[in-house]
Specification:
single chain; 313 residues; alpha+beta; Beta-lactamase; three-stranded antiparallel beta sheet; 11 strands
Length: 313
């Protein structure tokens, strides 16, 4: 595997203060690599970027969700009140105690502070993957599958997800790990992840993957909250399918079949943001939010003194 390359830098007062290394790739509608930085075949753990395929597998298995609740099933939500209410709506009559997400605080700082002010603590329903887990429980219920072991890699649900991940990526996963939420995590190449974004974004309208993609595009705030960069970018680029993952992972699919995947070696989210914006600009996307996210300003006191920006030589 080729070494990661420098793809973002930190410049303060004209001084190059630091840099981020990683891999990035652009594929076309047929999955062929058009451009790459670092190694397009780098083996990565996509983390929550796999949620596109995970949700698609559940729809294929009979998950009866649509619109914002289907978007929430593919989300890394912020734990805002509407997210928490949405998870409860997905669960319906299924007791929340069946959720096997670890107890957590909301990602969203406003909601996290509000909970603390009320003297409340973390719970499994606030965890950012609880929408996915709630959808998993519903899928199991629809199919008569057991609930207690729904995270086992040998469970019918997880076997169906593994098949879907491989189909959309066009490759056999190279690793089986455990994600932060406790669910099985399948490793892909960076190009395989980019193909996932491409294929879901351009699938036929009635297919499970297209239904998931459309829900995510129509309801970005259900996928990534109301105050996060991913939701703003998704809302600001028509037709863009977008999903971030932990440890500096990002995947995108455009209506013309272009797929993009990014992995920042040190896992830094700020580098993920500027690299994705820069690549979108490279492939011809020129919108206000793309320009805005192509650099993160740095301040000294209250004055602008530099920025974090992509380096795509």
């Amino acid at each position: 595997m080729a070494s990661p390359v420098e793809i973002a830098e930190v410049v303060r007062s004209g001084v190059r203060e630091g840099a981020h290394r990683g891999h990035a790739v652009v594929v076309d509608a047929q999955g062929a690599v058009l451009q790459a930085w670092g190694d397009p075949q780098a083996q990565i753990l996509p983390r929550s970027a796999n949620k596109i395929a995970q949700a698609s597998a559940m729809v294929r298995a009979g998950l009866p969700l649509a619109d914002e609740l289907l978007a929430l099933a593919a989300a890394s939500h912020s734990g805002e009140s509407f997210h928490v209410d949405g998870v409860r709506r997905i669960l319906g009559d299924i007791p929340a105690e069946h959720l096997q997400t670890p107890a957590d605080w909301p990602w969203d700082e406003v909601d996290r502070c509000a909970l603390r002010a009320e003297g409340l603590g973390p719970t499994s329903i606030y965890m950012n993957c609880s929408g996915k887990h709630a959808a998993m429980l519903v899928t199991c219920t629809v199919n008569g599958w057991s609930l207690d072991d729904y995270l086992s890699p040998d469970h019918p649900l997880q076997r169906a997800i593994a098949t879907e991940v491989a189909e959309l990526a066009g490759e056999r996963p190279w690793a089986l790990a455990i994600d932060g939420c406790g669910a099985p995590l399948l490793g892909l190449t960076l190009a395989g992840l980019a193909r996932t974004g491409s294929r879901a974004a351009t699938a036929a309208p009635t297919t499970p993957e297209r239904r998931v993609a459309d829900a995510m595009r129509d309801y970005p705030e259900w996928v990534a909250g109301t105050r996060r960069d991913a939701a703003a970018l998704s809302a600001g680029v028509p037709g863009l399918l977008l999903k971030e993952g932990a440890e500096g992972v990002y995947v995108a699919g455009l209506p013309d079949g272009t797929g993009i995947a990014v992995k920042i070696e040190d896992g830094t989210g700020r580098a993920r943001q500027v690299v994705m914006a820069a690549i979108l600009a490279r492939v011809g996307i020129d919108t206000e939010i793309v320009r805005e996210q192509s650099a993160i300003p740095l301040t000294g006191g209250s004055e602008y003194v530099g920025e974090i920006r992509a380096v795509l030589d």
